[in-house]
């Protein structure tokens, strides 16, 4: 079987070599309390109901994530919202998972790289990240995401990392190179939604966020596809499991058998 590797239009940060553990995490709705692209679509674009219809079409395979997500963001542009205005609104409204700062501090003190792997656009992620964790901490975190193209007339459009992939950004491409290293690290992946479908099957330990308002699309995808995962409510709960694996109290298999933390 030939596995097609999509060409990336955007650079990747260097791989972290010689690490025992690497954390890769989705940004929107996973590290943040609310997905920023959903926020824009719901409040400035086509609205929540239509957005959920598109999410369900992605989940059922009727539409690709790439095309449906482009449509959601285009609805924000069609309503006349500039990219700068969106960035400002997101900085004001998107909050951090309550356990993320401690989780990040633990990773840093334990020499575990933490990489954000997102289908969002780099400038909005950076704007919100620096606002939430501070400029210094934000600079230390690699972000592998999509980008934006701002036109002369002020209109903007998402620029996909992998335009030939139905995922737009195939997140497995951020994970798989670690598997080819001589001594591959144990890979933790955190996600919540349809943008994480491309990553779900490729981590050693997959954490899937359960949100109080529902929309647990990644959990549904994992159940439908028999992918083992651990449901988590916030990074404080997840940190306990990560510590157990890192500090040798639990094997990867035992962690996955928990099912929920
Ligand atoms: Mg997400």
Rg estimate, integer Å? 18 Å
- Heteromolecules bound: magnesium ion
Query: Mind telling me the CATH class of the domain at 21-34 and 96-153 and 161-258?
Result: Alpha Beta
Give the uncertain stretches in residue-range form: none
GO molecular function: phosphatase activity
InterPro entries: HAD-like_hydrolase_phosphatase (IPR050849), HAD-like_sf (IPR036412), HAD_hydro_PyrdxlP_Pase-like (IPR006384), HAD_sf (IPR023214)
Pfam family, one: HAD
Keywords: Hydrolase
Description:
The protein is built from 11 helices and 7 strands. The chain is α/β, with parallel strands linked by helices. It has a domain at 21-34 and 96-153 and 161-258: HAD superfamily/HAD-like (Rossmann fold, 3-Layer(aba) Sandwich). Strand 3 (142-150) and strand 4 (156-159) form a beta hairpin. The structure holds magnesium ion (MG). The site of magnesium ion (MG) has 8 residues, from loops. Magnesium ion is lined by residues 26, 28-30, 35, 192-193, 195. This is HAD-like protein. One of its GO terms (molecular function) is phosphatase activity. It comes from Dendrothele bispora (strain CBS 962.96). Keywords: Hydrolase.
